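Let us work through a complete example step by step.
Step 1: write down the sequence.
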Amino acid sequence: MLDELAGLGAIQGGAVGLVALIVLMVLRGLLVPRRIYDDMREERDTWRAAHAASEEARHVAQDQAGELLELSRTAIPLLRALPNPQPPTEGVQHAPVDQGLASQT
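Step 2: predict the structure and record it as tokens.
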């Protein structure tokens, strides 16, 4: 009855309602064009691949840090087992230190 008062028939009101629904969905972002959807999908895949590469690099770095930590754990007892050097006695002359490139400049 309301459609008849507005001057629209039932079929015209349904078509107007459908167009209004589609426009509302586009404006709210629920309905996007295929081109934009493909761009979003490509960007998502790019970020996903970048994340996978960074995670792989992080795992490699973490494994290397674990190996270095193990080496330091074995090196500490070895260095502590070395005898302490005795301080030089008075009057002992040391050989001059070769400074390599520093002496050539």
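Step 3: interpret the result. Residues 33-79 form one domain.
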